[in-house]
Every structure is written in C-alpha cells, then in structure tokens.
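Table S4 entry, Alanine--glyoxylate aminotransferase family protein.
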Amino acid sequence: MSNQKLTSFNPPQRLLMGPGPSDIHPRVLAAMARPTVGHLDPAFQTMMEEIKAGLRYAFQTENALTFPVSAPGSAGMECCFVNLVEPGDTVIVIQHGAFGGRMKENVERAGGHAVLVAFEWGQPIELESVRAALETHASAKILAFVHAETSTGVSAPAKELCDLAQAHDCLTIVDCVTSLGGSELKVDEWGIDAAYSGTQKCLSCPPGISPVTFSERAADKIKQRQSSVQSWFLDLSLVMAYWDNSGGGARTYHHTAPVNAMYALHEGLVMLQEEGLEEAQMRHHAMHQKLKAGLESLGLGLIVDESHRLSQLNTVSIPDGIDEAAVRQYVLQKYDLEIGAGLGALAGKVWRIGLMGSSATERHVMTCLTALEDALKAQQYSVQDGAGTAAAMAVED
C-alpha cells in the first residue's frame, strides 16, 4: 500500500502547437466550471439538443443521427466501424499515414475483411488506385479513409472519393478528427455516410468527446444487421435511446454522460457559430500562410505539396545535423511551447506543428517562429535574426 501524500496538481501554462490537443479557449474552460446537473436533468436535455444542432452545422449535415460519443475520437472511430461492419464484410481502407492503419485494425476486429490501398506517407491519394481496388473487389460494402491525416499533414480528396464509393455502391466512413472546424467539410453535399471527429483539435475544447454523424443509408445498414454489434457501449441501437428524443418520449438511461465536458463542447460550438464556419476555416489557412512564410525564411520546408496540404497540421522537414528531439525539448523548457514529433515512417524526419482552434492565432505563429529560431541557433544553425517573424508579419491576413 502506497503512503505517498498527494497534493493538488497545478499544470504548467503551455502553448499547444503539436498534433493535438490544441489550446482550450478561456470561454470553454469557464463553461466546464459551471454547476454540474444530472445527465437526465431537463436543462441538460435541452442542451443535448443544442449540441446536436451545433454539430450538424459543423459537419454541414441534416443527419438526424448526429451526436457526441462520450469518449475520445478513437471511440468515435470504433463506433462507426463496429456498427457498420459485419463479419465477412469487405471494406476498402485507404492508408496514407498512421490513422488509416487504425481503420484497418477496426475492420478486422469487427470480423470484416480489410483491403488496404496504401500510399507513401506525405504523398497524395491517387484516385485511380482506389478506383481499381473498388473494381477488383466488387463485393466491397464500405470505403474508409482519413480526410485530414494528422501523422502527415495530407488532405484527402474527400468529395471525389465519396463519388467513387457511391458509383460502386459503397458506404463511406471518414475520419474527420483534424478537419472538423478547420477544413472545408460538407457531409451531405459530398455524400459522406459516417464521419467521426474529436473535440481537442479545431473546436478548441478539451479531449474526451467524439462527434459522429451517420447518413440515412448508414442508419439503414445498421438496422438491417444480421448480427449483434460487438460493443455494448457503442451499439447505436442502445446509445440513441439516450440521445434521440425525436419521438418526444422519455430518454432511456444508457450511461452517465460527462456533463461538464458537454458544457465545453456546447460552448465551443457556440463560438464556432459566432465566428462562422467559413471564417474559421479561413483563419486556419491565414495562420498557415504566415507560418509557412516564416519557416521558409528560417530555411525550413514543408514536406507536403501545397495542392494537398493541410493548413492546421504542418509537417516540417528537419535540416541535416539538427537533433530534432533537442529542439522540441528546448522550446518546451524555454518557451513553454509544445510541438510534435514525427510518427511512423516520418519519425525523426519531421516536426508536426499544429495550428488548430485557439492555437491558430498570430501570437502562436510568432512565438513558434521565435522559439524555433532560438533553438536552431543553439545548435549552430545559421539563420538571420528575426527572419521568421519578419516574413510572417509581411503576409497579409
């Protein structure tokens, strides 16, 4: 038995510019401190409906089956796969980074057969390769892909992929964890059947909640399942008895929702509406342009071509001779700035710099460029004083 005496935890004040979480807006933090009510309280139920409406706005959908899963984005991913994939189903999974691999594992754990269409990390998705896989595997039921690949900074051509899927009578499951609120995302217009996201990226909220949305086609497939969903907690036929009040009857208890975390999501969605969805996307892009100009002035490049590059997740190539881990440690210790390391095939080759939600501001960009310049100079890297911030400032908003 431990006799360690615990004291209150007081975390350092960081600037979060890694791949997530991003900085939480003070309004969102304040919302979390409001009095807790019961998860079946009438006031909380009113807020639940407002959250669903806010998520429909964020996803750009009229889907009735749109709600937040009471768990992080990985649970939203699993919710989509365990409900839509039945044993024996063939699912084509596009992998252009780490998170496509997680999709494949979800398919297999649900008893499905995963057909992997893989691309080099940092490179664009080639539509013809996906088309060939759909034609070769005519029995495929689902096409799954990551819209905004957090491990590489690559954006997928979501509309074109959804068009391909529909032409081959496939549903689509789309990872929108990094894109929701930061990139153009039109669930209804593009024909996305199931999408999942997370609160800790462009919505400026804490981690722990996963917004999801399902089309009528997806809902019909779930209703026609011949086998039980392997997860009790994520079984939509049970969860929606709590979240769906369209019939006007009493909600059925399913789980105790994280009440205060839902307050946070609600406030984040209020703020998204106040700013405007297109305006939020434009802000992320404008801050990316400033960061890009500053990085280039420091002699640092982005590994992803501009034609398929994300604004909110920047993969920065590491110059020869630079100790990348030492740079990350330097900026954390001296500037309280967090930037991310590379994953998988890009480990040791890139830094991942996030510009998401409340972290997509000019203050964040300037601090990041100043800190990187300082850290690089500490390793005798040659750079002109103030070059990065000057270049960033020269870029118009």
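The longest strand covers residues 90-95.
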